[in-house]
């Protein structure tokens, strides 16, 4: 592993445009559950996909609310780890030029990342399904926070639900970053969800070095120039220790 860390540090020092792509594994190291890896079941026995859906929002709002209240409270209960903080500092130092995430917890922003491309939205805010009026996520935890104060419509988290398209602006920004990448670093993504898993492929096709840090195998492992099956937090700390201070 030491050789892999040294290699990654050397590539990070030399790359003129580095893109970091984070998935659920980045968040599980903060203590958040990964619904896909655990079989997708919530405590009621419902599948994650059933509750995190447009169908649940429209036809089972009480269950939808209970699930997302639990998720919002869970995010608030935990915090970013050292790896989030390191990535934020690398952004500020100009070592990381674009940060793309599949996660909705907002931990990159809480750690100080100045800019994050959020492919699946965020749990940091909620909005009205009818008029799009936004509110802080904390309001969703109150009984009087479920009805829009502007039009009376149902409030919902500002995440992408099953049955909804990913945001065009985020997709465009991620594509542009992937096209420019000289180093594309995947942290904690299973790389099974489309179209998000297209971005590392695009970067590789455009000549970037592809590095995947994930405990479990991914479908893109054969394309990777470097594969590290270890803790993301420990890998980032080790790489950071080998970099000159800006």
UniProtKB/TrEMBL annotation:
Protein name as it appears in the record: protein acetyllysine N-acetyltransferase
Residues at the active site: 120 (proton acceptor)
Enzyme class name: transferase
E.C. designation(s): 2.3.1.286
Xref: InterPro entries: DHS-like_NAD/FAD-binding_dom (IPR029035), NAD-dep_sirtuin_deacylases (IPR050134), Sirtuin (IPR003000), Sirtuin_cat_small_dom_sf (IPR026591), Ssirtuin_cat_dom (IPR026590)
Residues binding Zn(2+): 128, 131, 148, 151
Source organism, top-level taxon: Bacteria
PANTHER family with a match to the protein in the record: NAD-DEPENDENT PROTEIN DEACYLASE SIRTUIN-5, MITOCHONDRIAL-RELATED
One of the Pfam families matching this protein, by short name: SIR2
NCBIfam families in the cross-refs: PRK00481.1-3 (NF001753)
Any one GO MF annotation of this record: histone deacetylase activity, NAD-dependent
Domain Deacetylase sirtuin-type: 1-246
Assigned keywords, A-Z: Metal-binding, NAD, Transferase, Zinc
